[in-house]
Amino acid sequence: MIKKIGIAQLRVGMYVHDFNCDWMEHPFMRNRLLISSDDEIRKVIDAGIRELYIDTDRGLDANAPTAEEVRTDIERELHRIATQQPAAPVRVSVAEEIERAAQVKNQAHQLVRNVMADARLGKAVELDQVEPVVESITASILRNPGALTGLLRIKNKDDYTFLHSVSVCTLLVAFCRSLGMSAEDTRQAGLGGLLHDTGKALVPDHILNKPGRLTDEEFDIIRRHPRDGYEILLKTPGVGPVPLDITLHHHERMDGSGYPDKLPGEAISTFAQMAAIVDVYDAITADRCYHKGMPAAEALRKMHEWSKFHFHPQQVQAFIRCVGIYPAGTLVLLESGRLAVVIEPHETNLLAPKVRAFFSTKSNTYIKPLDLDLSKPLGMGGGDRILSHESPEKWRVEPMKFFGLAA
Fold it and tell me: For residues 116 and 164, is the Cβ–Cβ distance under 8 A?
């Protein structure tokens, strides 16, 4: 049986099933292992891990809730979050925005490549080239946030570092917009998101793209990138305090376990807290050469779980409302037995987004794509509901092929 325990309950002889953290944050070569010494327990504590899952069939038991009980509680809480506040309205459909969004994605991707290349050569970032790209991203988000965020779910493993920066910028802009922040604050946050990983330009490629877990020494090198990026941006004329702060502090955690400064929650700015949420969300949903990304809906559930210690709980809730319980591009199973890809959250009901059905699980065949507004009854473009989010690999389908088609 899988159970969730607090770190104080961890004992030698327990079998760790899941460290319950961003996979990059724990210090072990394997995600599952039998705890064989007090030194290993100390390593887990030093990594800032506060809760984890154990397999009682493979090691010692503990008085703790089961994984199923924890999941039920999280689902109940997410449903509560989803009904608290409506999503921001969209101005155009995904189909109308998708072509422009694709152009913005490509433009931003190339810009980040150039920024990284210049940083490796010791050149300052040219802010006059970065700002127009942030403006283009913001304009796309204002028209329809689901189009660009959905497209950015698709990342080539070789281009992850560059597209991750584009994703963080895009999600931060959407996050700021959903919170009603000013245009200038949103612009500054967007600049910080696009430039937050500039310091990775100084990380050797063999470490950045290593197809396996990093050694302690390699982790130390990776952890230099926030300060390296900060130092690079300090040489950039006109860069503001918000991009500098986001770059330096996007790996800080509310319980003080982050880096580079181990800041406690009250010392971390709102923008850096927001960037930390967005950064981890995008990282854990992306496929890497050494790690399979989790579905976006599942990632939000993990972010909510981790917010007990690592993130600001109210901000995580706000981010969930921003992207929706089922973010754009999510594969879902409908009560009718159809698979559908989420097109965009509904403006008043995050539990009933707009989806495009394209596959029948009953006949195991593709069907003619059909757009549904799940907030409406049968006969008015709805009449179905989501049972669960699904893994594309499970059904051997590619939902993003149907994302952004003309209705």
Answer: no
Alpha helices (H) in 121-197, listed in sequence order: 127-143, 145-151, 160-178, 183-195
Tell me whether strands 338-344 and 354-360 are parallel, antiparallel or unpaired: antiparallel
| Contacts (Cβ under 8 Å, ≥6 apart) of 384 | 334, 335, 336, 338, 357, 372, 374, 378
pTM over 0.70? The answer is yes
Please state the φ and ψ torsions of residue 356, each to the nearest 5 degrees: -125, 110
CA separation for the pair 147, 92 (Å, rounded): 10
Tokens of 113: 């490549």
Amino acid at residue number 201: A
**Does the domain spanning 94-323 belong to CATH 1.10.3210.10?**
yes
Q: For residue 294, what are the contacts with CB-CB under 8 A and spacing of at least 6?
A: 284, 285, 302
Q: What phi and psi, each to the nearest 5 degrees, are found at residue 365?
A: -140, 155
DSSP letter (8 states) at residue 310? T
**26-30, long-range: CB < 8 A, 24+ apart:** 27/216, 27/219, 28/213, 29/213, 30/213
Q: Closest Cα to residue 82, out of 325, 254, 401, 355?
A: 325
The type of residue at 88 is: A
The model's pLDDT over 113-151, given as tens digits with 9 standing for 90+, comes to 999 999 999 998 999 999 999 999 999 999 998 899 999
Domain boundaries, the chain: 2-65, 94-323, 331-402
Residue recorded with tokens 């460290």 = 19
The CA distances from residue 391 to 166, 180, 296, 344, 388, in Å, are 24, 33, 10, 18, 10
pLDDT digits 0-9 by tens, 264-274: 999 999 999 99
Angle at which helices 270-285 and 296-306 cross, to 10°: 140
- Which amino acid is present at 57? D
Cα 207 to Cα 209: distance, rounded to the nearest angstrom: 5
Angle formed by the axes of helices 183-195 and 127-143, nearest 10°: 120
Q: Which helix (H) or strand (E) holds 3?
A: strand 2-6
Mean pLDDT on 74-89: 77
Taking alpha carbons only, the member of 157, 170, 153 closest to residue 107 is 170
The owner of tokens 């910028």 is: 169
Helices (H), 263-390: 270-285, 296-306, 313-323
Give the DSSP letter string of 75-87.
HHHHHHHHTTSPP
Buried b (16+ CB within 10 A) or exposed e, 343-352: bbbbeebbbb
* E strand or H helix that includes residue 6: strand 2-6
**Residue 80 and residue 31 in contact, taking contact as beta carbons nearer than 8 Å:** no
